[in-house]
Design brief:
The complex is a heterotrimer of chains A (312), B (552) and C (103). Chain B contains 19 helices and 19 strands. Chain B has 552 residues and is an alpha/beta fold. In chain B, the strands form three sheets. In chain B, strands 1, 2, 3, 4, 5, 6, 7, 8 and 9 form a nine-stranded mixed β-sheet that branches. Classes of the chains: A alpha/beta (312), B alpha/beta (552), C alpha+beta (103). Chains A and B meet through α6 of A and loops of B.
């Protein structure tokens, strides 16, 4: 199992290292306690996609999903990280199986080890769609099983590929979601909306619009994410630690409360066409400028909302 | 007594009054409704007129372009278009519809392929492809416009114009037209009672039209630091250490590629650690590159004069009047003619990228079937033989070129090409024969479009090293020096290894290790900003990037 | 896709004690390189690339790499998304540095 495989060049702990820019392996290395990560099914096992060669596409030795165990401030964590730059971080057969296996192992720890999901994914991999769709549903089941067994599952989101499709669904099942302002969370991606509904409905190339609707700041104000941090691996580490500690209990009462929260949100905001309308309805000053605020000023807006999502 | 024919000396002025008379009913004072724009042009224009429809690589008189493209070819035809940029689809439509026939221009950019097609099928009769400053010069010699159609931000009722940060070509065009009995029509974003400042006096402007939307400006000089590669960072490190530092280059112009963007972002980090602050890169002829913000904020830059503006930079520049040229109103004043002149005569170095370089060092951005034009690069990237003032870097380059054995030392401008050996799609940058040669043959051009001639190039920087062409003494040496930095391209693999080794010993070729650099140290951590968001932070939130560059 | 193996003989074995290392990402214009120890001073480089027809360039890049860094006793496996030679060269050097590091 262990191969003491060095993750990638990590010269000490770089306090300015960007989460958005880092590879999946760099994120893991910067997130966990130094040299604590042990990879399961490492690249040397060469468990690569059995499908991509049919499409004349290159494989990756880890299929874009890195799973293993490590320590976070001394505590045990199981970690899965998607490489958003390989095939858009998509769920294929091998990548999906690796994550399902990790989550099932986590359930067996009965809460002894938390799970960190470093999501960076456009969703299901089109070239292996059936396997990918099955994987996503198995992952959702495994997350809920693990949470029911007392395991905290924390999603960390702020990569290039965003968190779309199945990955968006998966993020919604986690105990705690941490984002940066670069993060995007949605089920149907901007390009898909534009393709199906036309550019008048959604211009996927209008990046300000894309982030206004799906971006980290929007998601944290709407309660889809619990915490927003600066785009630094250090900040994600600190937030992961807190997320593991603060993860809410999982049971019927939590779910009923969540259902009420969502119904309430739909009633009050369901008619809004764009986020500035939502911010106005929520009583936020200068609703158009939310995206342009500095990190600290935005943190004050979030604090002013007193957003709590213990319903998860 | 010799009998001479009586000649009238003011025929142009008379013609001007006739044109104004034909258009009078459409104007109220100087104001014409946007809906009457085409009618105005039909009244003013005569077949064969030379017309400047203002448009360059940034701002566009787009309303007037649409109005001219909609004119009746039975009334308006065979125009001779003399303008900087062929950029909008309407610029081509004017030729397709027969409204215009002849073209003298400078830059085409996105319409490069359409222009090549129109030349090929005879829709366009080409005069010449110019550099900016060269075309402007001809406005005052043999291509003076009869009618200029220009763009400004605001006008008042008297026709005074405020051109705002994107002043660019306007004063040059208006000067040539208005003072030679021509007619000036301006589209403006708004007509106001009082202008923030007057860029063009009203007595040089005949008609003003309030447009339904602001004139289009292309963000052409924004390079996202997120896209800068380790290879580009390595090249930037080599350039700073091997050229900027060695020659002590203070006055310069940068191209718009990612290699030079990397250099801008390494000034406050890598170059600062080399102790170069204040010794290099202090005075610039440069558009408002957002990637220069960290260097400005770190105190590297004394001053910058701009050809044009850049989308999102206006508030930042207005807040930095010690650095930029600003009007009494506080906003940037750009001027392409002046800045090109500064780049030609007052810069000690130009450094920029290109698509192809041949074995003589000639470079071109022409690809098969595309005419991109020249813009300003050939003026920046040329030794000005009329220069008569000295500087240390200019003299050092001159001494290297002359081998120190010439009685009368003359300086040289440093003209540096910074390129990766392969471009997009594994297209080699180094070639035996430029694609522009084939294009010139196909379109029967009198001149092969060459961006920078090999005899002006002093250095070529690639990821493999720096070739100093000043130190080459024969044509064969130049060729091997170029092959010696051409990497794994066919040209590079065709090198004579023994000759290249000798050139390296003579410091004609210098590898990263010869400069004390390890390619493994070339990481993105060296960049002062790694994203557009970082640039916004450096600017203290004054820089407002356009939507397409956002990821937040 | 094109696959081939290039066999080279290095002057000496690659230093360090790590059994393996991986660097880079399979993406357009990028590649991943997996390095593992083998016996002897040979260097076996297995290339799987999405860009076909560039084997002579790979051979030239690898010949220079073997001469510069002496990666003896390594099996190097490459999944390439069409990286340019300078990127390949850089990743190979990064890979050797990584596996040579004392953990």
């Amino acid at each position: 199992m262990s191969d003491s495989l060095p993750l990638a060049e990590v010269a000490g702990r770089d306090e300015t290292a960007s989460w958005y820019e880092a590879t999946a392996r760099e994120r893991i290395a910067g997130l966990l306690d130094a040299a604590s990560f042990v990879e399961f099914v490492p690249p040397t096992a060469r468990e690569t996609s059995p499908h991509l060669h049919l499409f004349d596409l290159p494989v990756a030795f880890d299929d874009g999903m890195i799973v293993g165990a490590g320590r976070l401030q001394g505590g045990c964590v199981l970690v899965a990280a998607q490489e958003g730059r390989f095939m858009g971080g998509t769920f294929g057969e091998i990548a999906g199986a690796k994550l399902v296996g990790l989550l099932r192992a986590a359930r067996e720890t009965g809460g002894g080890c938390a799970v960190l999901l470093l999501l960076d994914s456009g969703g299901v991999r089109l070239q292996e769609a059936n396997a990918g769709e099955i994987a996503v549903s198995e992952i959702i089941g495994a997350i809920l099983d693990a949470r029911a067994a007392g395991v905290a599952v924390v999603a960390l989101i702020g990569g290039r590929a965003g968190t779309f499709g199945g990955a968006g669904l998966i993020s919604a099942c986690c105990s705690h979601v941490v984002v940066s302002e670069q993060a995007r969370i949605s089920v149907t991606g901007p390009e898909v909306i534009e393709t199906n509904k036309g550019v008048e409905e959604f211009d996927s190339r209008d990046r300000a619009l894309v982030w206004r609707i799906t971006g980290g700041r929007t998601r944290v104000l709407l309660g889809i994410a619990d915490r927003i941090v600066s785009d630094r691996i250090e900040c994600f580490r600190e937030a992961a630690l807190q997320g593991v500690r603060q993860a809410p209990a999982f049971g019927l009462a939590t779910l009923v409360a969540e259902q009420r929260r969502l119904e309430q949100r739909l009633r009050t905001l369901g008619e809004c066409r764009d986020t500035p309308e939502i911010w106005r309805a929520m009583g936020i000053d200068e609703p158009g400028d939310v995206a342009d605020l500095g990190d600290e000023a935005f943190a004050a807006v979030v604090a002013g909302q007193g957003t709590r999502h213990d319903a998860r | 007594m010799i009998q001479t024919e009586v000649r009238s000396w003011d025929r142009q002025r008379t013609a001007r009054h006739e044109r104004l008379g034909r258009a009078a009913s459409l104007a109220k004072g100087k104001q014409v409704q946007a809906s009457d724009a085409t009618a105005l042009l039909e009244a003013l224009l005569q077949p064969g007129d030379r017309v400047c429809l203002e448009g360059d690589n940034q701002k566009q008189a787009d309303l007037l372009a649409r109005a001219l493209a909609a004119a009746d070819p039975a009334r308006v035809h065979d125009l001779h278009i003399v303008q900087s940029g062929i950029v909008l689809p309407e610029h081509l439509e004017i030729f397709e519809r027969g409204i215009a026939r002849k073209l003298d221009f400078s830059y085409s950019g996105p319409q490069g392929a359409s222009i090549a097609r129109a030349l090929n099928n005879g829709r366009i009769e080409l005069g010449a492809i110019h550099t900016y400053i060269e075309l402007f010069a001809r406005y005052y010699m043999d291509l003076t416009p009869h009618v200029a159609l220009i763009a400004a931000v605001q006008a008042d009722a008297q026709g005074n114009l405020y051109t705002g940060p994107n002043t660019e070509d306007t004063p040059t065009i208006v000067e040539a037209t208005a003072f030679k009995s021509g007619i000036v029509v301006a589209q403006v974003n708004r007509i106001v009672d009082r202008l923030p400042r007057v860029d063009i006096p009203g007595d040089q402007v005949d008609f003003i039209i309030e447009a339904d939307r602001p004139f289009y400006v292309e963000p052409l000089f924004t390079r996202d630091p997120a896209s800068i590669t380790e290879t580009q960072i390595l090249m930037a490190m080599m350039a700073i250490k091997g050229i900027y530092a060695e020659y002590g280059v203070k006055r310069l112009n940068h191209g718009i590629g990612f290699g030079t963007a990397a250099i801008e972002l390494l000034l406050p980090t890598f170059a600062e650690r080399l102790g170069l602050k204040g010794k290099i890169a202090t005075h610039w002829a440069l558009n408002p590159h957002p990637t220069l913000i960290p260097a400005i904020e770190s105190g590297w830059v004394e001053q910058i004069h701009c050809f044009g503006s850049e989308v999102g930079m206006d508030a930042y520049m207005a807040a930095r009047p010690d650095i930029y040229f600003t009007g009494r109103d506080g906003t940037l004043r750009s001027n392409r003619m002046m800045c090109q002149n500064a780049g030609l005569y007052a810069c000690d170095m130009f450094i920029g990228s290109t698509l192809q370089i041949d074995l003589d060092g000639n470079s071109s951005t022409v690809t098969p079937d595309r005419i991109a034009g020249f813009g300003g690069a050939p003026n920046m990237g040329a030794d000005a033989h009329g220069r008569r003032h000295a500087s240390d870097s200019w003299l050092k380059a001159g001494r290297e070129a002359s081998d120190g054995n010439i009685a009368m030392t003359r300086g040289r401008k440093l003209v540096v090409q910074i390129v990766e050996t392969f471009g997009a799609g594994m297209a080699p940058t180094f070639v035996e024969r430029l694609d522009s040669v084939a294009l010139a043959e196909k379109l029967q051009l009198e001149l092969v479009p060459v961006m920078i001639y090999g005899d002006d190039v002093t250095h070529i920087v690639t990821e493999e090293g720096i070739a100093n062409l000043l130190l080459c003494r024969t044509r064969e040496e130049r060729e091997q020096a170029i092959r010696g930095v051409a990497g794994y391209t066919e040209v590079g693999r065709g090198r004579d290894r023994a000759v290249v080794q000798k050139l390296r010993e003579r410091r004609v070729i210098r590898r990263p290790e010869d400069l004390g650099l390890n390619p493994l140290d070339a990481t993105r951590h060296l960049l002062a900003a790694r994203s557009i968001r970082d640039l916004v932070g450096w600017s203290k939130d004054l820089y407002r990037p356009p939507s397409k560059f956002r990821n937040w | 896709m094109e696959q081939f193996t290039i066999q080279a003989e290095a002057a000496s074995r690659c230093g360090g004690t790590r059994p393996s290392a991986i660097i880079g990402v399979v993406a357009s214009g990028n590649l991943e390189i997996l390095l593992e120890r083998i016996e002897g001073t040979g260097c076996a480089i297995e290339v799987a690339t999405s860009a076909t027809g560039f084997r002579p360039i790979w051979e030239a890049v690898i010949a220079d790499f073997v001469q510069r860094t002496s990666p003896g006793g390594l099996r190097i496996s490459i999944n390439d998304g069409g990286a340019r030679p300078d990127t390949v060269s850089l990743r190979l050097m990064q890979g050797v540095r990584l596996i040579s590091e004392v953990p």
